[in-house]
TrEMBL record:
Protein name: N-acetyltransferase
InterPro entries assigned to the protein according to its UniProt record, in alphabetical order: Acyl_CoA_acyltransferase, GNAT_dom
N-acetyltransferase domain segment(s): 48-200
Highest taxon of the lineage: Bacteria
Length: 240
């Protein structure tokens, strides 16, 4: 926009260092207490090790996630492209207060989950993915991020939505999540319906989800399992 000035000025041009613009575009980040690594025994007896994804690991993960865009079944493509955007959004400071976790089995990438803090009450569930099928890795990843939100970050409400039938079956139905009236309330993922969990409902019921429906439990990661997962191995291509 352009408008004539109402006063004489000593400098007609004022320049800015882009570092002065960045705080306006990205805002301050919350200091979130870290997710402490956990593990869960899987159906085949192996352990899923869940830990925070480090920001400097994002470039290593992106080429793998990019390949999900070509997986045209079970909604891996649309979830993949959204996850790609969220990883870049975090890496380039264009996503407010996200948290990311990965699950590995003997170091090999097996699962992914992320969410973000919208405000001091509501956390937005973004995505969960399984890169190994049939072991309920995805179910555990989602539970782990919701547990972190409610029990460590003090979330009062968890807002989710579902692209896929598997996701809806796992958590929308599996956790018997109610929804807000739609389209009055919309999720940031495409304006879809918001399914939600309150802290009260988490404490009353959903805490038992893993035991009831996934037949496992999350426990603090043992030194042995942490050691077995020390090195992150990212497959060349997804086999899902
Ligand atoms: C949704 C998702 C995370 C669930 O992961 P999960 O809990 O590990 O479960 P899976 O998808 O592997 O399997 C779902 C069911 O189908 C069966 N199944 C599906 N594909 C299978 C395969 N290729 N091999 C073996 N079993 C398979 C599983 O045995 C399982 O049955 P169960 O309910 O009796 O355990 C996963 O399907 C996924 O990543 N989908 C693409 C991304 C997505 O949709 N994310 C969620 C958005 S809402």
């Amino acid at each position: 926009m352009w408008k004539e000035i109402p006063e004489k000025v000593s400098q007609e041009q004022i320049t800015f260092d882009v570092r002065e613009l960045e705080p306006i575009l990205s805002g301050p980040s919350l200091k979130l207490p870290p997710y402490e690594p956990e593990m869960a025994k899987l159906k085949d007896g192996s352990y899923l090790y869940i830990r925070p994804l480090e920001k400097d690991e994002v470039p290593k993960l992106l080429p793998f996630v990019k390949k999900l865009l070509d997986v045209d079944h079970d909604f891996y493509d649309i979830v993949g492209v959204r996850v790609y955007g969220e990883l870049l959004g975090w890496y380039r400071n264009r996503l407010k207060d996200p948290y990311f976790m990965i699950g590995t089995i003997n170091g090999k990438l097996a699962g992914f989950a992320n969410a973000r803090v919208m405000n001091n009450g509501i956390h937005i569930s973004l995505h969960s993915m399984a890169f190994v099928r049939g072991l309920r890795v995805g179910a555990i990843m989602y539970y782990a991020k919701a547990k972190y939100a409610f029990e460590k970050l003090g979330a009062k409400e968890w807002w989710a939505t579902y692209e896929s039938y598997n996701g809806f079956k796992r958590w929308g139905l599996g956790m018997a999540q109610p929804s807000y009236p739609w389209p009055d309330v919309q999720h940031e993922l495409g304006g879809a319906k918001v399914y939600y969990v309150t802290k009260e409902y988490w404490d009353l019921s959903i805490k038992d989800y893993l035991k009831q429906l996934v037949k496992t439990e999350l426990e603090p990661a043992s030194a042995e399992v942490a050691e077995a997962n020390k090195e992150l191995i990212i497959p060349d291509s997804p086999v899902v």
